[in-house]
UniProtKB/TrEMBL annotation:
Transmembrane segments: none annotated. This is Calcineurin-like phosphoesterase domain-containing protein. It holds the Pfam family Metallophos. It comes from Dreissena polymorpha (Zebra mussel). Residues 9-263 form the Calcineurin-like phosphoesterase domain. GO terms for molecular function: 2',3'-cyclic-nucleotide 2'-phosphodiesterase activity; ADP-ribose diphosphatase activity; CDP-glycerol diphosphatase activity; manganese ion binding.
């Protein structure tokens, strides 16, 4: 018997729109098409709205919705992007990357339209950026805050900022956004990354335990990666090993981890069978829109990539028979 298609949703990362001339990344090696990014988002939304297979029920926005170069017109730039997202007929679940914090404070973001804690099907954590969402009885999504401990998100006089400074002690560069001299996965100890608190990791563990009990398939989303090989080492969370360990301890329900941050994109399957997918950055493609559309069947999850995004099939941990 043919497996039934029961749900569809979209994913997109690193739009980084700005109303400025094209430029380059921090290293000066890759061009960024700031205005074009908005047109590419428009293409993605048009594709989702006109999907004749099954229109996506929601979209996952994986962080860096606008570029840090927008100051002091950050809100205007954000409203331009949200105006495009408003054309999508369904919820958009947002997470925050480093560029959100280049533009806004955590306090602003928690009161902004890109705080998804109050959205449909969402269970928020009070005063936190991370949240849980159940868009379908057989699917649980955990949205992480990869900058909970960071120089970007934390007040300078806070204990979390001091903890972030300790993570960065290994980086001897004058500019701590530079990973020169940091070998292997130590390249992650740069200022444009961050870490999850022990409290957030415990929250992940609790949610994955509940998902196992309820036989729910789980997708975790975070701006930074947690699995070496799926993303450039300079784009990993500072405490990626601890986060990966808790995900792998619940491999019976974990289907995939979705990230952005590395504009090349990437993919790797860890040794517990969890797929780690990094979506390419919209801002670095002037010819095609980089995004993905997921199709959830009773026995599998198919990802169809557009532009540079990956296309692959993932096995669901629990069969779904509810439409």
């Amino acid at each position: 018997m043919e497996s039934k298609l029961i749900l569809s949703f979209g994913a997109i990362a690193d739009i980084q729109y700005a109303d400025i001339e094209d430029g380059y990344n921090f290293a000066g090696t890759r061009e960024r098409y700031y205005r074009t990014a908005l047109r590419m988002l428009k293409r993605a939304i048009s594709s989702w709205n006109n999907n004749d297979k099954r229109k996506p029920s929601f979209v996952l926005q994986l962080g860096d919705i606008i570029d840090g170069k927008n100051k002091p017109i950050s809100e205007r730039a954000l409203n331009s992007v949200l105006g495009e997202f408003a054309q999508f007929d369904g919820p958009v679940y947002h997470i925050w990357g480093n560029h959100e914090y280049y533009n806004f404070s955590r306090k602003f973001l928690l009161d902004s339209p890109i705080y998804s804690g109050l959205d449909k099907n969402v269970v928020p954590v009070k005063n936190k950026a991370y949240y849980m969402c159940v868009p379908h009885p057989q699917l649980r999504i955990l949205a992480l805050d990869c900058y909970e401990i960071s120089h970007l998100a934390c007040l300078k006089d806070s204990e979390d900022y001091k903890l972030a400074s300790r993570y960065l002690e290994i980086n001897a560069n004058e500019d701590v956004n530079c990973c020169k001299g940091l070998e292997g996965t130590n390249a992650r100890f740069v200022q444009y990354n961050g870490a999850l608190s022990t409290e957030q990791i415990d929250w992940i563990d609790k949610n994955l335990t509940e998902a196992e009990q309820m036989k729910q398939n789980v997708i975790v989303i975070g701006h930074c990666g947690v699995c070496p090989g799926s993303i450039d080492s300079s784009c990993l969370c500072w405490n990626a090993p601890e986060v990966l360990q808790v995900l792998q301890s619940h491999s019976s329900c974990m289907v995939a981890y979705l990230a952005g941050h590395d504009h090349f994109g990437g993919m790797a399957c860890d040794d517990q069978g969890i797929m780690h997918i990094t979506f390419p950055g919209v801002v670095e493609n002037k010819s095609e829109a980089d995004f993905g559309t997921f199709y959830m069947y009773e026995d599998r999850l198919e990802l169809v990539g557009n532009g540079r995004a990956q296309t692959l099939t993932l096995r669901l941990r629990y069969m779904s028979g509810i439409s």
